[in-house]
Design goal:
By secondary structure, this protein is α+β, with helices and mostly antiparallel strands. The chain is built from six helices and 19 strands. The strands form five sheets. Strands 7, 8, 9, 10, 13, 14, 15, 16 and 17 form a nine-stranded mixed sheet that branches. The model is unreliable at 1-10, 264-300, 306-310 and 321-347 (pLDDT under 50).
Length: 352
């Protein structure tokens, strides 16, 4: 099957294989095989061909189970040990990588493969479309390996690999190979390639007279094996994932492919949480301020805080027969304020 991606999806929907891949059911190529096997149905009709576009309104089922809405894209680094297959099921019952993954990962697929006797970095994702994008040679991501092989090789032979090589009718692209050291009857090499065809390094080394006895992948594009222990799995943070994928596979701030977002038809409504205050390790809801009293209930008593509720002293009542001005005498001489005369004082008329 060609590695050329199908035409871009139009407004009528997305290709069914692409939707299955985005939901993490399988890679796009494997999804097409599932369709050919009659394991996928749309709106109650079993498909026999992947030449179909679907929309969010269509009901898609895989092995008679409804297909869930695709989650945000996630990517993990896994240190694959020797002796485990990179497959979800083996007819011979041998151990697989997926048998030993943490359950909380859910269903994931691998980006490329490592054979039974190979070890090292294996990328895992819940997004089949991302897996396909990273696997394509056109992406140009380098895969780097540490190789131990029995035999000897000359620098000129390794240099010639930069032009590619054909082994038993299979053409392999340019390979960067560097001799690191010789230890007894073995040589250690660092090899970098961009295609990663089935058993590519082993076949190329055999053509040079070397027998590979240890093969470890140490990097896939910008992602490194580093100090990850054998058998361990570690998720990459979304910020790192967005930065490293860049324009190759742009993601929005929520982790969905740019322009896709969470499916509106199946997205849960998110309500804005109330303001909260933190006390110790527990979050307690911030009490709301009462704005009034309930009908039929007694009104709340005023606070007893004298400083907050200091009452203004009342003015002394005027004595009978005295005007209001009489009550406002000053300490000096007991005179009334200027311009204030009580009703008991007649105004004198000025002589003409």
């Amino acid at each position: 099957m060609s590695d050329t991606p199908p035409p871009e999806d139009g407004p009528a929907g997305e290709r069914i294989a692409k939707v299955l891949a985005r939901a993490g059911v399988a890679s796009r190529r494997e999804a097409e095989r599932l369709i050919e096997q009659g394991r996928i149905s749309v709106n109650g009709r079993v498909l026999t061909s992947p030449a179909l576009k679907v929309t969010p309104a269509d009901e898609i089922r895989f092995d008679d189970e409804a297909l869930a809405a695709p989650p945000p894209t996630r990517l993990w680094r896994h240190h694959k040990p020797v002796g485990r297959l990179t497959t979800h099921a083996d007819p011979e019952g041998r151990e697989t990588v997926f048998d030993h993954l943490p359950e909380e990962l859910g269903r994931v697929i691998s980006v490329g493969r490592l054979d039974l006797n190979s070890e090292g970095l294996l990328l895992l994702t819940n997004d089949g479309a991302l897996a396909r994008a990273l696997e394509l040679p056109a992406t140009g991501w380098k895969r780097r390996y540490r190789v131990r092989a029995y035999g000897d090789v000359k620098d000129a032979q390794l240099e010639a690999l930069k032009n590619g090589i054909t082994v038993e009718g299979v053409s392999y692209g340019p390979i960067e190979a560097q001799l690191d050291r010789r230890t007894g009857a073995n040589v250690w090499l660092t090899m970098t390639l961009r295609e990663g065809k089935n058993r590519e390094i082993r076949n190329v080394m055999r053509a040079l007279g070397l027998q590979v006895n240890r093969l470890m992948r140490t990097a896939y594009g910008p992602f490194q094996l580093g100090s990850l222990k054998e058998g361990d799995t570690e998720e990459l943070e979304l910020s790192v994932l967005r930065d490293q994928l860049g324009r190759l596979y742009p993601l929005d701030e929520a982790g969905y492919p740019a322009g896709k977002g969470a499916p509106a038809s199946r997205a849960k409504r998110v309500t804005k949480p109330q303001a909260s205050t933190q006390s110790g390790d527990a979050l307690t809801e911030k009490p709301r301020r009462k704005t009034g009293s309930k009908s039929g209930w007694a009104k709340p008593k005023p606070a007893k805080n004298a400083a907050a509720h200091k009452q203004t002293p009342r003015k002394p009542a005027a004595k009978p027969g005295k005007g209001a001005g009489e009550a406002s005498r000053t300490a000096k001489g007991g005179q009334t304020k200027a311009g204030s005369k009580g009703p008991g004082h007649a105004h004198r008329r000025r002589k003409p």
